[in-house]
Request: fold
Amino acid sequence: MTSAGQAPPDAPMDVVIEHYDQQYAEGGFGYGAQRDRWAAWVRRHYIDEFELRPGETLLDVGCGDGFWTDLFAEAGFPSTGVDFSPGGIEVARTAYPRPTFLVGDAEDLPFADDSFDIVFTRAISHLSRPDLFTDASRRLMASMRRVLRPGGLILISFYSRRDGGGTPEHAWHRVSDLVRLIEGVADPFHIDVTGNYVQIGAQRWDAPRARSGRTNGASRRTSPTPGSSARGTLRRALGRARRALRGR
Ligand SMILES: C[S@@+](CC[C@H](N)C(=O)[O-])C[C@H]1O[C@@H](n2cnc3c(N)ncnc32)[C@H](O)[C@@H]1O
Reply:
């Protein structure tokens, strides 16, 4: 996630689309140069950390040029990417034949209710706006929740304010504020913080996702990294919340 490549957060939609069309035509964010590194990141911070099960269907909201969508597809998740940048979707379709890609608005997702097991979003523009609690953010959350099947998982990945970061135009928010936004539509049950990246998993209130019961961190990293102690503190706090959720 690079702030340099992000569109001005409060720009009108047509300006944002034009910005990203150009960004993707010029090579996107350059993640492909380190595909193995990011594939390992997906395994560790998304699949293992949130106990995603290969075979589950996944929607990547604001998928851009499809790089992350394809990493999920490669890992065994039937994946669909949606973005309102036609340029991004064109690049995605050309570069990655595995997933399905569609042009569409994240705030009004072009799918039926209850369509996906996992609804994922990474670095979506809404979360870098100085005001996180906009109508647009709420529409995004509601739209993601609508297409999630009962028992499904919303997984949001972004920067947090921890370790600084952000620019005058692009705010990084506190983890607690991101959680507050998400809990308007689903119950956050687990947070992964690494440096100033944060991953938040949330499940539908009406049909909590069955968990594997793993509590010993078996799939966790084995060597300490920056942020690991904060991760531990947050994990313990969220573990309590998760146990409370399970008891419902
Ligand atoms: C910073 S890029 C992140 C792309 C990709 N998820 C990644 O992590 O590399 C933000 C993406 O969100 C998309 N986006 C922003 N608002 C959107 C909306 N309302 N509907 C669909 N896509 C949107 C942009 O077109 C852009 O591709």
Observations:
- The longest strand covers residues 148-159.
